[in-house]
Write a structure and sequence with these properties.
Layout (H helix, E strand, L loop, with lengths): L1 E3 L6 E3 L11 E8 L5 E8 L2 H10 L3 E7 L5 H20 L5 H16 L4 H11 L5 H15 L4 H6 L7 H12 L3 H58 L5 H37 L1 H13 L3 H22 L4 H11 L3 H15 L4 H8 L4 H13 L2 H58 L1
Parallel strand pairs: 2-5
Antiparallel strand pairs: 1-2, 3-4, 3-5
Helix pairs in contact: 2-5, 3-4, 3-5, 3-8, 4-5, 7-8, 8-9, 8-11, 8-16, 9-10, 9-16, 10-11, 11-12, 11-16, 12-13, 13-14, 14-15, 15-16
Length: about 450
């Protein structure tokens, strides 16, 4: 059974407090030394109290002390039923959903901050996860098993990159080293939640125009394959010359009916080729990202999103005690844009050679003057993390404002486009009828 010492938040598994008098048990321990540095190891003793006493004599504050071979009975029982679930995620190579990862991180941070030891916190999350949160239960179970095997939380997290990205692994490692794991986990959860919120807002801005375009494409296909042929038969029976617009639509309809399968396969192949080139050809990826940044309205939205992610990530890593040069390693990929990722690589190179952060960012380009000035103020006043957080909040707000401005403009624009396409087809079909009525009326 796992209990917490009343005076500390240490974890001591007292499932086997006393062993045989003639036998010693190997215990795994982890804790912080006199200087606050994280340490771990194993020790042999007749029982867990003697082991704790021996470790305390070395000036180490115990965080975890558990029989190495026995482990937690609860975890061993749970592993039999839950290992298959987590192994399914690993074998299939699927990533745990970012939402569940953020929720797990937030819950673990809250439990640790409340004084509940890591192992017991993971047990709680493994037991209490609802049916809709099986991923969270699997994460908690596998981390607990790794910690019982002698790993730190950071090492356990690094064993499962499909759940914890490199940024989270490094932040957890920094939190353990500085004995501020609860605060670090809260910061990770904040970062993950804000990133998800930002992505959700961008998706919200794209859903409406994409759905309207999809509807327009479906309606156009139906009209060309079902409606236009009916008009074609009627016009053919008249035996008269058709207006050029009507003839073009009829020809397009005939082409669509005869070659729709080829068009579908061709479109599908183009999508596959695009995805392959996008993920395997850096030059093509760079071209696409440069093109996106030049788009009206959307380009500004992407730029603000990249700067917001960069600032938020840099603030989170720097606040966790990671040096700027190392923090820039994580800030690049998080932007999601190769143009900014390469610019941040140039910034990192300049910082490594002694330049200040704001000077390096100014030389790299692509960053607005406001964030450069805020970083310069932060470096001069010694409050870089605070200014980065304020910069991130500003550009996240700019993303929201841009979306709020774009959405009201997109709706009438998409409806106009839909009306133009459908209206053009209808006009082309009824144009001969109007001309016939004019002739008869004349």
């Amino acid at each position: 059974m796992t209990v917490a010492d009343n005076s500390t938040t240490n974890t001591i598994d007292r499932g086997a407090l006393v062993s045989d008098n003639n036998l010693s048990t190997t215990f795994f321990w982890s804790g912080t030394g006199a200087t606050g540095n994280f340490q771990r190891g194993t020790i042999s003793a007749e029982n867990i109290d003697i082991a704790a006493h021996k470790i305390a004599l070395q000036g180490i504050e115990i965080k975890v002390l558990t029989p190495q071979k026995q482990g937690s009975e609860k975890f061993r029982k749970e592993n039999a039923s839950k290992d298959s679930l987590f192994n399914a995620f690993t074998l299939l190579g699927n990533k745990t959903s970012p939402r569940n990862t953020a929720l797990f991180t937030r819950q673990l941070a809250t439990l640790i901050q409340a004084g509940i030891p890591i192992l017991q916190s993971l047990e709680v999350l493994g037991e209490d996860a609802s049916a809709e949160q099986k991923e969270i239960a699997a994460i908690a179970t596998t981390l607990g098993k790794d910690i019982l095997a002698g790993n730190t939380l950071a090492e356990a997290a690094s064993n499962h990159p499909q759940v914890f990205d490199l940024l989270s692994q490094q932040l957890i490692k920094a939190g353990e080293a500085s004995a501020t794991l609860d605060l670090t986990l809260h910061n990770i959860a904040n970062h993950q939640e804000r990133t998800l919120a930002l992505k959700a807002k961008i998706k919200k801005a794209l859903i409406h125009p994409i759905s309207v375009l999809a509807i327009a494409a479906v309606v156009t296909m139906l009209m060309l394959t079902k409606v236009v042929p009916q008009f074609e038969q009627m016009f053919r029976s008249q035996g008269k010359a058709l207006p050029s617009m009507t003839a073009f639509v009829i020809e397009l309809s005939a082409t669509m009916q005869n070659y729709w399968a080829y068009a579908l396969v061709g479109a599908f192949m183009l999508i596959i080729i695009f995805r392959i080139c996008y993920h395997t050809k850096p030059a093509f990826t760079l071209f696409v990202h440069q093109l996106l940044l030049r788009l009206p309205l959307c380009g500004g939205l992407i730029k603000a999103s990249c700067v917001a992610r960069f600032s938020r990530t840099l603030a989170t890593t720097y606040n966790a005690g990671i040096p700027i040069a190392s923090a820039l390693t994580f800030a690049g990929p998080v932007t999601g844009n190769l143009v900014y990722q390469r610019a941040i690589g140039q910034v990192q190179h300049a910082v490594d050679h002694g330049e200040s952060l704001h000077e390096a960012i100014a030389q790299a380009g692509h960053f607005p003057s406001l964030i450069i000035k805020m970083i310069a103020i932060g470096e001069q006043a010694g409050v870089l993390d605070t200014m980065l957080e304020k910069g991130a909040a500003h550009y996240e707000s700019e993303v929201e404002n841009t979306i709020d401005k774009i959405l009201p403009l997109l709706e009438p624009a998409m409806m106009a486009l839909l009306g133009l396409v459908i209206g053009g087809l209808i006009t082309a079909m009824y144009l001969p009828v109007f001309q016939m009525g004019t002739v008869l009326g004349g």
